[in-house]
Amino acid sequence: MGPTALPDPAGHLAGFLLADSRLPSGAYSHSAGLEPAVLAGLGVDGVYPYLLSRLNTVVRTETAAAVLAHRIASGHSGCTFPEVERALDARTPSPAQRDASRRLGRGMLRLAGTVRPDHPAVLALRAEVPRPTRPVALGVTAAALGMGAEPLARLCCYDDAQSVVAAALKLLPVDPMRGTGWILDAAAEMDAVTQTALQTCTPEDIPALSAPWMEHWAEDHTERTRRLFVA
User: Fold this and answer.
1) What sections of the protein cross the membrane (predicted)?
2) Is this structure's pTM higher than 0.85?
3) 12-221 adopts what CATH topology?
């Protein structure tokens, strides 16, 4: 019996890196849609229900897309990145949300091109989709950094939840300890989203879920001249 393979330390660190709020697509630049929701009247007591609503709509869709992009980048799917992008566009009726996702995705692709400039999937995505959505760019970046599909799916859930909480701390009178509690309370929901996303094998498997108020708020947000976050 040969020696047991040790885990790739870079792959383990990748999850921490990609959840860093300082990234071009991190929580310092986007609020996971919370800023326009607060401007529309959402209060402190609505933040946790909002977080759960995103997990069951937007995050389910985006996590499935990120997992599929990861499979393509890892050579485990016969789909293409443009096919995933078309599926995401069809499931994102709000032009504002599509545009924000592509701006954030461009920042994520820039990160991938900096840390893994010669990775075949990074080069392929840049050639095929110069302005990818955030989930697709995240899936490719995770694969290039050696992350597995399951850690990626959990990262998608955690990153969205912590983006909501981080924005709430800036926009509302929220006790940081309460915000931490919200993320812990949502653990079971995140696990459910993760397990469902791992079943994604084709663009048709990406769920089509509606979040009309979030879409409406996102459109309103583009008309505002004074705001803290891109989205």
Assistant:
1) none
2) yes
3) Urease accessory protein UreF (1.10.4190)
